[in-house]
Amino acid sequence: MTLKQLFSVSLSFLACFAAVTQAADPPRLNVVFILADDLGWGELGCYGQQKIPTPHIDRLAAQGMRFTRHYTGAPVCAPARCALMTGKHLGHAEVRGNFRVQAAFPEFDEGQYPLSEQAVTVAQVFQRAGYATAAMGKWGLGPVGSTGDPNRKGFDLFFGYNCQGVAHSYYPSHLWRNAERIPINANPIPGHQRQPEGEVRLEDWTGETYAPKLMIAEAIKFLEANHARPFLLYLPFIEPHVAMHPPRESVERFPAEWDAEVYRGQCGYLPHPRPRAGYAAMISDLDGYVGRVMETLNRTGVADRTLVIFTSDNGTTHPRLPDTHFHVGGVDAAFFNSTAGLRGYKGSLYEGGIRVPLIVRLPGRIEAGAVSDVPSYFPDWFPTLCAAAGLETPPGMDGENLWPVLTEGVVPESRNPMVWVFPEYGGQVAVRIGDYKVVRQGLKTKTPGDWEVYDLSRDHAEEHDLASTRDDLVREAETILRREVAENSRFPVPIPGVSN
């Protein structure tokens, strides 16, 4: 064989070897991250809900791993999303509360305080790695044209509500597709109105175009268009955040006898003739969206290589007036046992405000029907998603990688303390240290509360304050907070000393 022939054979061999190697490389993992809005700890069937059927989400739990000690990054919308997107706890997060953008940037007419140009989101990491990226739902981290614009924070496509205030209505005047304002209702329905007298009628609070139907349709279209390439799809749905606006057909699925009392808007948001049925309908509709997403993943052949995560941004709404059982927006949390015995609601650093459902599914990698009591929270998702996709995690994350927990059932011997520093609802701080939570409230009031300590392994309802006997944990929490809380003049919280 001549040298030329030998060289030709060698090239052919190398070409064949490269083709075989490329064919053997598994497709990159896809990610669908579904975020409910104000969904309580006990409002899903797989978490004990008895009245509202959630078969699609329950099936997700049966096919994957359900967590019992997962926490949001904050007890309200915008800072929870900031912690999720940036991997920073509230001591380091840029956005630590719900703050209307106009107060700082009057050139914008809607939106929340924006992420800075320097802030890096998990979507940016995936986008730079060649993933198709999209978000459909509620953003809340900076208006269109700002440094926090979702298109500038890693999403090729954004469709939905940029502003949380606009998202109080399910029949708004407009949604956004990237930088394009899309009119959808010539006669939008406001998210807030009272009706002290007269018949409360569903049709009086119904518009022409129901925004959630457009957003789930856009999500399905994205999955169908991008199933042949790796994708990251973020779905921050608005259900079941009030106002109660579900379609009549959804409301009528629930018993008429549930509602002997109409809601007149006395606790904010819109009136509703059947508030219990209305609230159940929103959660049922949310469950239906999950079913449509999973059906599309199966139909396009990518369900078994798509990591699906379902969770909520915080707990259910809190009471507002002492003389009614209605919570904010007409929610009857006691009727649905929405917190399943946890203390507190949205806006609180007690368990009912921050402990949220978490379900994670990936066939072949995550054991079906598994239950994990490993403590975790929103900052963990940035490094976890990077590990799942084989991407390098940027430095400076506060979260920890949960991938070994998900795929190997590893129970970590310890983890970094979990930190919350929340300037709203009076000013609150909390630190979870092992099985204990140390919390203090009213830090921005004239009468700050005392330190409280709870052993969550024995007292998930936070009924037995151990602060008088666990001064060591109080001092450790103070040390952690002073170390972990960076100054943030836009969202200040006084960090207390032990003697304060």
Give a structural overview.
Strands 7-6-5-4-8-1-9-10-2-11 form a 10-stranded mixed β-sheet, with helices on both faces. With 500 residues, the protein is an alpha/beta fold. Mean pLDDT is 94; it is low at 17-24. Helix 5 (211-226) packs parallel to helix 7. The N and C termini lie far apart (89 Å). 26% of the residues lie in helices and 15% in strands. It has 2 domains: 28-408, 3-Layer(aba) Sandwich (Alkaline Phosphatase, subunit A), CATH 3.40.720.10; 418-484, 2-Layer Sandwich (Arylsulfatase, C-terminal domain). The chain has helices at 3-24, 55-63, 77-86, 122-128, 211-226, 248-251, 275-299, 333-336, 351-354, 381-389, 403-408, 471-484; strands spanning 30-36, 65-67, 70-71, 132-138, 157-161, 174-177, 180-183, 231-236, 306-312, 358-361, 370-372, 376-377, 418-422, 428-433, 436-440, 452-455. The chain is globular, with a radius of gyration of 24 Å.
Key terms for this structure?
alpha/beta, 15% strand, 500 residues, Alkaline Phosphatase, subunit A, globular, four-stranded antiparallel beta sheet, 12 helices, Arylsulfatase, C-terminal domain, ten-stranded mixed beta sheet, 16 strands, 2 domains
Task: State the helical fraction.
Answer: 25-40%
CATH top level of the largest domain? Alpha Beta
What would you call the structural class? Answer: alpha/beta
Largest sheet: 10 strands, mixed
Oligomer: single chain
Low-confidence stretches: 17-24
How far apart the termini lie comes to 89 Å
> CATH fold name of the largest domain, please?
Alkaline Phosphatase, subunit A
CATH homologous superfamily title of the largest domain: Alkaline Phosphatase, subunit A
